[in-house]
Amino acid sequence: MTTMYEAHRAQLEGFLEVGDMAILFSGKAPKSTADSHYSFLPNKNFYYFTGCTQEHFIIAMVKTIKGLEATLFIEKPDYDIEKWIGRKLTREAAESISGIRDIQYLDGFVSWVSRTVYNGKVERLFLDLEKMNWDEMDSPASVFAHDFTKRYPFVTVKSLHYILCELRVLKSDEEVSLVKKAIDITSIGIQEIMKALKNELYEYQLEATFQYHIRMNGAERCSFETIAASGSDGVILHYVENSKKLKDGDLVLLDLGAQYQQYAADISRTIPVNGKFTDRQKQIYNIVLKAQSAVIDAMKPGIPFEELNKVCQRTLTDELKKIGLIKEDSELSKYYYHGVSHYLGLDVHDIGSRNGLLKEGMILTVEPGLYIAEENIGIRIEDDILITENGNEILSSHIPKTVEEIEAIMYR
């Protein structure tokens, strides 16, 4: 049976020419202080082709006339080390997970590269050279590119990032199932927050409630730092302090997600601390909900990605004019200051071009918001949407969202 990772490698083969080699690194956990390290998170592009989550691993793929030949380099098991930090992945286990038959140890990687280049098999080397910011720390791929170019200047080094964007932006049925599972677990955590919410709690207790229930239901971790922003902090887009005591009459904006088998959910709900929306809160909430519905209704193959935010802006502008909060279109930016959508998958903000058209197999978030600082109202509503052949499917439709649904769970 072909694994998901074998299918991903087969898709990559179609983008490469004979004589191309692609190398990806799983990465390593950065040091904190003394002998402590931050938690390790595997490079998602490496994972996409291997299914392995261990540090230091490397995959090398060479396109030959016979097809794409993959070699996975893993750490050699060492009993003395394993007594301290746990078991290493065996060759047999690595093959079972990845579907790669050629499993070698890391200490042979450099000599393997040298032989492969010397034998004339490599004309171009593709590396994961994504770099969003000029002063970003060099990745293992960037360091390797520098060393490789000094030794083999006759081999052209190119970025694999743009190919990865095309591959990863379209999800297979198996990937969609994993995202759905992450969403289902997220739904449990959100509803447990709604049931537990009361005025005496702190924001961090909502975060803890979510973490507990998603871990108890199979999530590996949160897919990103949980936002539980109440009252005036609801207007801060990436508020993660979660340190404030909840107040009666305030709203709390929840932006959170579970990670399941490396795939992410990303959901936002805004709920009243005391279980009941005020008339004003309900009015603003329903405007945000209307904008979200308008965007979702517009989502289908062939629609430009950038059109989604335009739909959102038009709806919010029209509705805010109706209630007298703004008079001119230009005033919207005071209350809505982010985009409405991003891709979702292995990364919460998944890779892929935002300049093209929507295609079947894409998963996107839809997250309009209104942030009225002078009224201590911050509202964001976010769902995860799969683009289908003729339209879309709301993968998170079972998570309570309307005023009536939320109050039915919370009102005591």
Structural write-up:
- It is a single chain.
- The chain is an alpha+beta fold.
- The chain folds into 2 domains: 4-168, 3-Layer(aba) Sandwich (Creatine Amidinohydrolase, Chain A, domain 1); 173-410, Alpha-Beta Complex (Creatine Amidinohydrolase).
- Helices cover 35% and strands 18% of the residues.
- The strands form 5 sheets. A 6-stranded mixed beta sheet has the order 4-3-2-1-5-6, sandwiched between helices. A 3-stranded antiparallel beta sheet has the order 7-10-11.
- Strand 10 (258-260) and strand 11 (263-264) form a beta hairpin.
- Helix 1 (4-13) packs across helix 2 and helix 10 (279-298) packs antiparallel against helix 11.
- The longest helix has 24 residues, at 173-196.
- It starts with a helix and ends with a helix.
- Keywords: Aminopeptidase, Hydrolase, Manganese, Metal-binding, Protease.
- It holds the Pfam family AMP_N.
- Residues 1-135 form the Aminopeptidase P N-terminal domain.
How is this fold's topology laid out?
Blueprint: H1 4-13, E1 20-25, H2 44-50, E2 58-64, E3 67-74, H3 79-85, H4 91-98, E4 102-105, H5 109-118, E5 124-127, H6 140-151, E6 156-159, H7 161-168, H8 173-196, H9 203-216, E7 221-222, E8 227-230, E9 251-256, E10 258-260, E11 263-264, E12 267-272, H10 279-298, H11 305-322, E13 363-366, E14 369-372, E15 377-380, E16 383-387, E17 392-394, H12 403-410
Parallel strand pairs: 1-5, 3-4, 5-6
Antiparallel strand pairs: 1-2, 2-3, 7-10, 8-9, 9-12, 10-11, 13-16, 14-15, 16-17
